[in-house]
Design goal:
The chain has six helices and nine strands. The chain is α/β, with parallel strands linked by helices and about 210 residues long. The strands form two sheets. Strands 5-4-3-6-7-8-9 form a seven-stranded mixed sheet. Strands 1-2 form a two-stranded antiparallel sheet. β8 (about 180-185) and β9 (about 190-200) form a beta hairpin. The longest helix is centred in the first third of the chain and has 17 residues, at about 1-20. The relative contact order is 0.13. It binds S-adenosyl-L-homocysteine.
């Protein structure tokens, strides 16, 4: 336990060098990453690396979680949509900085496990849904922030349709193996896009994204 505490301090010293929004660091510090990873990799919970979870998926690297959360520019009043619940870790962080979080996952097993864990941890502003055929969660739209935690070949039109005026969308775009993290802002009906740098994600599967898992 002491080792985890030490590792956590080291991780936050490292994150602090790049991440300037103190609210993001505080939100992350409050979420015990060790309960979102399989027990066999608990000892690695505060290393700055992605880790394998069930169904061949991954919980993201803490640095990219911090970077994406910061780039969403949350105000505390936002409705946020996350695509790719995975372990539920990113959703837990978003829930502390947003008003409401809707998160969707295509693997029933992961969605159920995340819903249960987030409830046990006391979160009351997160809805976990099993993903439907179309990407996102239309019923809850529009969203002030949308975060896609899987890589797509292009920006799905479905998601742009779910983005509110003034809203921010973060999505890794590229090949199956490497992507660029793209931020899109809808301002006065226009879409402004910015490249935040290279990243690597498991594929986003569905209409308007990749067709199958390999
Ligand atoms: N945000 C997660 C990590 C996500 S890994 C965390 O904090 O742990 C990416 C996840 O996206 C995987 O669990 C994968 O099953 C899911 N996924 C892929 N395509 C999807 C889609 N179209 N809708 C919802 N989830 C999807």
């Amino acid at each position: 336990m002491l080792d985890l505490e030490e590792a956590k301090q080291r991780l936050f010293q490292h994150l602090r060098r790049e991440i300037k929004d103190e609210r993001v660091l505080q939100a992350m510090a409050r979420v015990p990453r060790e309960v979102f990873v399989p027990s066999s990799s608990r000892y690695l919970a505060y290393e700055d690396i992605p880790l394998s979870i069930d169904m061949g998926q991954t919980i993201s690297q803490p640095f990219i979680v911090a970077l994406m959360t910061e780039a969403l520019e949350l105000t505390g009043m936002d409705r946020v949509l996350e695509i790719g619940t995975g372990s539920g870790y990113q959703a837990a962080i978003l829930a502390q900085m947003a008003w409401w979080v809707v998160t969707v996952e295509r693997h029933q097993k992961l969605a159920d496990a995340a819903r249960k864990l987030l409830a046990e941890l006391g979160y009351t502003n997160i809805e976990v849904h099993l993903a439907e055929k179309t990407i996102g969660w239309r019923k809850g739209a529009p969203y002030q922030a949308i975060i896609v935690t899987a890589g797509a070949p292009k920006v799905p039109q479905e998601l742009l349709d779910q983005l509110a005026e003034g809203g921010r969308l973060l999505i890794p775009i590229g090949s199956r193996y490497e992507q660029e993290l793209i931020k899109i802002v809808r301002r006065k009906g226009e879409l402004l896009s910015q490249d935040l740098g290279p990243c690597r994600w498991v594929p986003l599967i569905g209409e308007g994204a990749w067709s199958e898992e390999w």
